[in-house]
Amino acid sequence: MTTAVEFREFTKRYGGVTAVSGLSFEVPVGRIVGLVGPNGAGKSTSLRGLLGLLRPTSGSATVFGQLYGQLDAPARRVGAHLDGVGFEPGITGRRHLEICATAAGVPRRRVDVVLEQVGLAGAARRRVGRYSTGMKQRLGLATALIGEPELLVLDEPANGLDPEGIRWLRTFLRSYSRDGGTVLLSSHQLAELAQTVDEVVVIKGRTVFAGSLDELTDGGAHDLEDRYFELVSTGGERVRDA
Ligand SMILES: Nc1ncnc2c1ncn2[C@@H]1O[C@H](COP(=O)(O)OP(=O)(O)OP(=O)(O)O)[C@@H](O)[C@H]1O
To answer: Cα of 139 to ligand 1 centre, how many Å?
Structure first.
């Protein structure tokens, strides 16, 4: 299996509102792919559809060739952290992760591993309600990592991180991908994204561009930001051949 994620003509309508229309792109195994687009472009809708949290009106979004809901032991294959998903504020970070480990069917020792991985070991016994935004992002990533998944799906993982946190996240994702992991993340932080991803998918209700960062920036000759604005203002379409 060389494709971790495949969106095929994924369409989601809410009554008269078309959130996403005919979205098609693939995420190859081992790559870091950034999903970008203006507010309301359909990034969260797409990621939610991929994770089985909403049903597409038509088309499909699959992970490792299957619907998320059909995966055996999904937490061991896909780890996700979506923007706006809250934590129970009254419990500690460690307790939160213990609950997640139980739900995922993985040993409790994973809790210490992921706490170390995301740099939260020292704050594990503090209540989540007292965590800063950046610490909550780290806890979200720890939650995603609990099952040692092959694929990470992250909605705006850099939101609320300070510069040190952003650099840490970039280093972490690169090393995860070097070890064979695949990442699909959404972001509005284009300069940061350009330092992190291998491939870019630009959406604006539909796919506007899907391909390598190199192709989009002509091997780094252009800024990702400039190319992004050209694409979203003209709505031109460039999708890599499958
Ligand atoms: N439950 C819903 N009911 C009706 N419309 C919705 C619903 N969820 C999303 N939408 C609409 O679908 C469109 C896409 O929203 P979505 O949140 O997926 O965009 P986004 O790219 O994640 O935006 P942002 O960058 O602001 O997070 C928007 O027009 C939004 O208003």
So the answer is: 25
